[in-house]
Each structure stands twice: as C-alpha cells, then as structure tokens.
Amino acid sequence: MRDSSDLLMGTMILVGLVMLIAIGLEQYGVFMIEKDILIDKARREDPHRESSQRQRMAKFVKPDDAILKEMLTDLQYEVTQHNATEPVNSGIFYTHFARGIYVDIVSKEPLFSSVDKYECPCG
Fold first, then answer.
1. How many other C-beta atoms lie within 10 A of the C-beta of residue 8?
2. pLDDT at residue number 53
3. Which of 16, 19, 20, 114 has its CA 20 to 30 A from that of 50?
4. Segment 70-108, tens digit of pLDDT
5. Torsion of CA 110, 114, 118, 119, to 10 degrees
C-alpha cells in the first residue's frame, strides 16, 4: 500500500516531466502554434467580433484602381490587388521591429500584432 509521500513524489516527477517536455516543445514552436490555434478559434467563436468586423467591412468602399495605383507603389499594388509576393528579404518590414498593430494598407483592417511576428531561421 502506498503512502501519501509516494503519491506526492510520483506527482512531482510527472509534473517535472511535463515541464521538460513543454520546454522542449516550446523551442520548436509547438506551443506557439497551439496558442494561435486556440486564439483563432476563440476569435471565430466570438459572435461580437464577427458582427463588428462585418459592420466595419460593410462601411469600407474599395477605392478605384486609378486611386489605388496613385496611392500605392507598383509592388504594393501588385501584392494587395493581384496576390503577388515581395522578393525574399526585400520588404520594408523585413528589418522593421517596431511594436504595434500592422494593418492592411488599403482597407486599414488589422492584420496582426507585432508580438505575433514569427522569426524563421530558415528563410
């Protein structure tokens, strides 16, 4: 028959192992991915967020192409209107680390927070 000290020791070992696994997984971004999935799920399930987003977008009137071409650089226009991509390591935000919320240049819709930026060591 086990006494309470054996049970406590077993629990402490289990907690320690879980922490070691968590530290190892966090190094590979697994926790970040799970956190983002949970946050995205919570955002999708929030009825107020969806309705307020719909209200904002209902008010948004996309500027004519001529106006967009005037207000954007050629690259910005191609990226925002034709799903083009910037050449690798060339975008204005490649070395930009200011804190804040990044927004779509055309709609002004929030895209992501600077705390969510991901640094990929492999390029």
1. 10
2. 65
3. 114
4. 989 999 899 889 989 888 888 777 787 778 888 888 888
5. 140
